[in-house]
Amino acid sequence: MLQQALADLNAAYRNFLACLAGERNGPRMGPPRFRSRKDRRQAIRFTSNARWQITPSGKLRLPKIGDVPVRWSRALPSAPSSVTVIKDAAGRYFASFVVATEPGPLPETDPVLGIDLGLAHFAVLSDGRKICSPRFLRRAETKLRRAQRALSRKQKGSQNRDKARIKVARAHARVTDARREFHHQLSTTLIRDNQAVAVEDLAVRGLARTRMAKSVYDAGWSAFVAMLEYKARLYGRTFHRVGRFEPTSQVCSACANKDGPKPLHVREWTCRSKTGSSPGAARRSRNPPEATPGHGVTDGIPGLQAEVDVKTGASSPPLGIAKTMYANLAAFAIMVWRHARSNIVIINPDTQRGPLVGRTQASWKTRPRACR
Fold this sequence. Notes:
alpha+beta; 8 helices; three-stranded antiparallel beta sheet
């Protein structure tokens, strides 16, 4: 154990001195630092020369420790070269093995998919499916609050406080594990069933500075997108990030005509370049990414559907209802809250003046939730 720690320290100093001398490419490395006292995780790594092994009975034999029973999550594809034993804040132990494997690409398939992430629904897919948001943290808030309150009552430095701290850590670990499992299952399904996947590049840090920060972090968009990206690269799929400033809500998904900016409440709109009227002309799907030049998304990704209807004034033409970028979740939530609690005036996008809608008919408490 001490030999491996000294080897890691030697490698850290070697990289740091190489950066100072300009002999190392890549990101600049700083001097090694002491481990944080607030970090409850502990880890130890055993290399091949440490004489550790996996016994025929499936136990892990570690030097100076002995045989440790293991619950195997999967069979190892090849002989491991090293193992890292990790203890997390909840007091659980994990063994991570380094193995050599080459996962082959999946068979090619025709479907391509666009994903729009949100809070009411975790994801709205371009084929019309909607993935409900599990809200793992919100559902566990009562237990977490109770466990945290019990921890605050314990005397600092006592054994009871340490036991209460472990209970809080285990409660948070259950939430984290459930969220990670949900992300893995959904990302694997989407990558396996589609040849190309496109997702919007969300400004998560900006949204986390709003009053919806808890819900944004509970959704875990960044971790989900990261899983999509590395799984697409691993299994031979195509992954695209659509820029957050692309005006996809202003471009018709059928003829690529740019109709201009729309108010935030507008969800669907009728393309002005269409001369005829048809049952489907009044409800356009959201513009697919390939209709907007400059981002190189594979052709054929259909638009994402938005099913929020708005009543227009009798004297006004059919109000074009465009996609509202779910990246602007903060502004969208504020608009819905104001729309439900007070009188609003919606400006005509054609003339930029004149009210179209008067007092709202629905209240915040009577608005149906998307998923229960």
